[in-house]
Amino acid sequence: MSEIAREIATQPECWRKAAEAAPTHADALPTPGARVAVVGCGTSWFVAQSFGALREATGQGETDAFTASEMPPGRAYDLVLVITRSGTTTEVLRLLETLGGSATTVVTAVDGSPATRSAGATITLPFADERSVVQTRSATSALALLRAHVGGDLEPAIADAEAAIAAPLPVDPARFDHFVSLGRGWTVGLANEAALKLREAAGAWAESYPAMEFRHGPISLAGPRSLVWTLGAPDPDLDRDVRATGATVLGGELDPMAELVLVQRTAVALAEARGLDPDKPRHLSRSVVLS
Q1: Same fold, 3-152 and 156-273
Q2: CATH topology of domain 3-152
Q3: Residue 114 and which of 20, 95, 209, 239 are 20 to 30 A apart at CA?
Q4: SS (H, E, C) 13-37
Q5: Strands 121-124 and 79-83
Q6: Per-residue pLDDT tens for 54-104?
Q7: Distance of CA 133 to CAs 43, 213, 252, 284, Å?
Q8: What would the pLDDT profile of 126-142 be if each residue is shown by its tens digit?
């Protein structure tokens, strides 16, 4: 079994630990009404997108999400929340240096990293760290922590994730050449992450969109070799239009994070069907460190 497959299977336990840890870190996390920026790179950026949209949707306050290399200078925030698995990503460290005296909290899986030494506060989730290059449980555990912080009950999501790990895959991914992930609200970030897992682990042609944008051009690419997967509640009219192209439509049955678990498993299965090692994707490393 690959390392990533083992790590995917541990997510329910990791989410429970992260949710239980949330109250102990309340002082380092955004307070209601605070103006917040959430920052990350790659997978961590997509977690930032999800949490930003979720925090606003729950009435907690204005929340922007940026990739670390593109955060606009000069904006005033009460807190900058930085998500980074390793704490060594160059763009993250450069941003923390630029922020200087601003209020910052780093959420990471590795204690004592350069990012933790540059932040005002640190939340470490060591139980969620990974050996695989491809992130799974570290990112979802960070999101579990943040969902619990804004008042979410993670137990239904954990139960759905356990079901997602135990169940057979809903499709044979080798039947498809084209993969599309769709989301709405806070699940747009999860859709972006789902497509990234398929690209990273399996080298797949994978796209992601806010669900209602799919009809504004991208649906022209859909056909019998397309798998369109919605993370969150599907739109019946959109599903009807996608099915009319001959594409296969999935999603909407589980908590969106548990749907992501199914996509992660699908990415691993597709990689193995293609003779690839999902733990060692091409041209990627555990952390992007630039010279």
Answers
A1: yes
A2: Rossmann fold (3.40.50)
A3: 20
A4: HHHHHHHHHHHHHHHHCCCCCCCEE
A5: unpaired
A6: 999 999 999 999 999 999 988 999 999 999 999 989 999 999 999 986 799
A7: 11, 31, 28, 7
A8: 999 999 999 999 999 99
